[in-house]
Amino acid sequence: MDKSRRMQVLLASFFIPLNLFQINMQKIYKLVLAMLCGAFPFMVSAQQTIENIKINQFGYRPTDTKVAVIANPQEGVNSDENYVPSSTLEIRETSSGNVVFSGTPTMWNNGDTHDQSGDKVWWLDFSSVTAPGNYRVYDAESNKRSFAFTVDEDIYSHVLKHAVRAFYYQRCGTPKLATYAGQWNDETTCHIHNSQDLASRLVTAKNDAATEKELSGGWHDAGDYNKYVNFTYNTMHSLLFAYQQNPSVFLDNYNIPESGNGVPDVLDEIKWELDWLLKMQLEDGQVLSKVAVTEFQAASPPSSDASPRYYGEASASATRTFASIMAHAANLYKDQAQLSNYADTLLSAAELSWNWLEENPGYSNYQNTGFSSANPEVDEYNQMARQIGAAAMLFAATGKEKYKTFFEENYQNTHAFEWSYWYPYENTIQDIMLYYSSLENASTEVKQAIIASFDNSFKNHNADLLTAVNQQEDAYRAFLKEQDYVWSSNKEKADVGSIFYNAALYLNDQSTDQYESAAEDYLHFLLGVNPFSWCFMSNMDDLGAEKSIAEIYHNWFSDGTDYDNAHTSPLGPAPGILSGGANLYYVPDGAYTGPTLEPPLNQPVQKRYRDWNTSWPENSWEITEPAIYYQASLVQLLSKFASDKLPENLVTNTDKKMDENRNLLVYPNPMESGKFYIDVPNGIHIQELQLIDSTGKTIWQQEVKSTELRLNVAIDSPLPRGVYMLHATTQRGSIFKAKIWWR
User: Fold this and answer.
1) Considering the chain, what is the average pLDDT of its residues?
2) Strands 227-228 and 67-73, bridge-based pairing
3) In Å, what is the CA distance from 689 to each residue of 444, 656, 726, 728?
4) Burial 188-197 (b: 16+ CB within 10 A, else e)
5) In the Cβ-directed half-sphere of 655, how many Cα atoms lie within 13 Å?
6) Is the peptide bond before 308 cis (omega within 30 degrees of 0)?
């Protein structure tokens, strides 16, 4: 770790008061570092790391197109962070400082200010850097440099792992044990208190014990703990398509309870939700709508939430959603030897729901009576689209003619055909239609019509896709039109990326490399190449990023809890969770009377983001709340570029760049006594432990002779309340670290 970064970590860990959550942490660092630089110039390194040079903070694969985006902000909250790049920029190895590339940045759009970001922008293409290693972009003339990044074939595999693991933290009806959840454990099962999911009652018959149903399990939907069938539609299909299109990249070692069982962990995680969905199906095939609290009750952690939870009545929309998901899953799970019987169960459930729909062909109009939480009902068009998709998936799973007939008689009633317009807001039915075009027994003319429609919209009719890329509409290389920066814009970014990848997969032309590169640009935006240089996955600074979001709106990781902020709270939120993204339409509640929230207000659209989680009346959920469907879209896009193995020497913080450096897992943390244990990575032998206080002084150390994978540690002397760094030195001299909070 270089000295300036070390000072930043110390400042964030020890000196930033808790009442400064909403102040821009980067500006605090710069202010205090500037003061320290005057008094102690030896403490700050010669090169200044700046955020104006934007890179994917995890890195790039050797053969990827690699473009750094350099910004000189003209408008918005960071307009004082001026920087004009020198005529020559370099790529240097972080360890040796050797220059491996030099080139001239190219000005975007002849120097115009980019409307959506308020920045003047240059691009530096360094695609010729292909040797695996750790690098930075350097401006030698001004002694400025970018965040560090890695070039490696497996660079996305551990990012994908943490994106999938985020679903484990959303599990309902199970303890999140420290063995699997690390510091973000909740070791008591959630939502099994009285009048909760083990004996949930119909919301319109709260006093009728005869309506009780066992509806435990599944995933919490978003920042709340509710569970909705219809909201699983995009979620489950995105995850299933991610596995279906690239199964080899999903491994069986993500450290969830099912790891090592011979089934890829993503399928184990999907099964957790499938098991709950099966409970929501009634005997006649109808499917219940939701399980939720009546208002907005919640508590942190989830196991402490004792509010009664009820279920909503069955709906035709939920039944259509269910049939589509179950058929898709059945077709994949049948190939898992130990889950073939389970696949039969899924398929039978899907056909039972389909049969109910045949007998009851109308549309539902679920009113959400009894609930203040979201109404999951969808309109008649979307109900029909889901049934069209269910028919496609049932035909793929069974080969039955009736499903083929239904699909082929109705697929042109989708917007993709009615409008000749393929776009990210209907990604699931579009994915299903493209999949149908690959089925051997589907009608040739139907398959050709699907591909022709997609080809025309992608290349011509929807100017927001290939046309926008070819015309370089977005200085940050991941175009959405301004009005599409809505609540969930990060999901839309990921879904557009997947559309480009589908073009590479399904369109038989000579531009496959261009389409894949464009798809990856949308991923780069989410992982650092954006106006604020955010990695939009939570708390990843010790897992490869250097500026990941520190807060998300989530009832577990909420404002004022130990999980509030990754820099100023004992724990911060769990890692790897995608936030909602910039939102053009965000406004606080009318009851808000505080200072103007800038950002996100009064900013160019790509800067309408704020890293905070304050609830009503600031309503941060419109920007930073995660959701399982956002997360699934991220997994779907990441899976296109991951490899079939995890990196052997994972760099856990790109500014440290130590081959073996990993974070220690320490439990309990926070701690109230000096007794704790450490999980040691396999194959690593710890030789010495040191505890370091906020001044950098070693206040305790101990020689370690054990080679066990779990070390029991006891510090006899009581310590003042605060944050400390635990260092563990290996036999090879590498240092593992953990930040611990002493209560």
Assistant:
1) 90
2) unpaired
3) 67, 19, 7, 5
4) ebbbbbeebb
5) 22
6) no
Q: pTM of this prediction?
A: 0.84
Segment holding 241, helix H or strand E: helix 232-245
Determine contact, residues 164/628, Cβ cutoff 8 Å.
no
Give me the amino acid identity at 418: E
Q: pLDDT grade, residue 8 (50/70/90)? A: very low
Q: Are strands 59-60 and 149-151 parallel, antiparallel or unpaired?
A: parallel
Q: What is the pLDDT of residue 659?
A: 33
According to DSSP H, which parts of 280-426 are helical?
A: 316-333, 340-359, 380-398, 401-410, 415-418
* DSSP three-state, residue 388: helix
Going by C-alpha positions, the residue among 406, 424, 315, 397 that lies closest to residue 362 is: 315
pLDDT given at position 683: 56
Tokens of 544: 């490869």
User: Is it true that the peptide bond before 361 is cis, omega within 30 degrees of 0?
Assistant: no
Residue listed under structure tokens 């999140």: 176
DSSP 124-182: EE-TT--SSEEEEEEETTTTEEPPPEEE-TTTTHHHHHHHHHHHHHTB-SS-B-HHHHG
Give the C-alpha separation, 636 to 643, whole Å: 14
* pLDDT number for residue 4: 41
pLDDT more than 90, % of the chain: 80
Burial environment of residue 524 by CB neighbours within 10 A (0 to 12, 13 to 18, 19 or more): buried
SS3 of residue 350 by DSSP = helix
Positive or negative torsion for Cα 563, 275, 173, 250: negative
Judge if the upstream peptide bond of residue 668 is cis by omega within 30 degrees of 0.
yes
Cα 716 to the center of its chain, rounded Å: 41
**Phi, psi torsion values for 39, nearest 5 degrees:** -85, -35
Residue 154 has pLDDT above 80, yes or no: yes
Instruction: Give the percent of the chain with pLDDT over 70.
Output: 89
* 380-398 helix and 427-436 helix, angle to the nearest 10 degrees: 30
Could you read off the pLDDT of 530-561 as tens digits, one per residue?
999 999 999 999 899 999 999 999 999 999 99
Report whether the peptide linkage leading into residue 17 is cis, meaning its omega lies within 30 degrees of zero.
no
- Tell whether the model's pLDDT for residue 5 goes beyond 70: no
Whole-angstrom CA distances from 257 to 129, 265, 529 are 40, 9, 34
Q: How far lies 344's CA from each of 269, 339, 402, in Å? A: 19, 9, 19
> pLDDT for 169-195, tens place per residue?
999 999 999 999 999 999 999 999 999
Please give the sequence-ordered ranges of beta strands (E in DSSP) within 595-693, or none if there are none: 665-667, 675-679, 686-692
Q: What are phi and psi of 742, to 5 degrees?
A: -100, 120
Q: Is the peptide bond before 617 cis (omega within 30 degrees of 0)?
A: yes
- Tell me: pLDDT of 660 over 80: no
pLDDT of residue 39: 38
Question: Are 308 and 195 in contact, with CB atoms under 8 Å apart?
Answer: yes
Pair of tokens at residue 289: 């709508």
Query: Read out DSSP for 36-97?
Result: HHHH-GGGS-SSEE-SSEE--SSEE-TTS--EEEEEEE-SSTTTT------S-EEEEETTT-
Q: Concatenate the DSSP letters of all residues of 416-458 into one string.
A: HHHSS---GGGHHHHHHHHHHTT-TTS-HHHHHHHHHHHHHII
Angstrom distance (rounded) from CA 598 to CA 289: 38
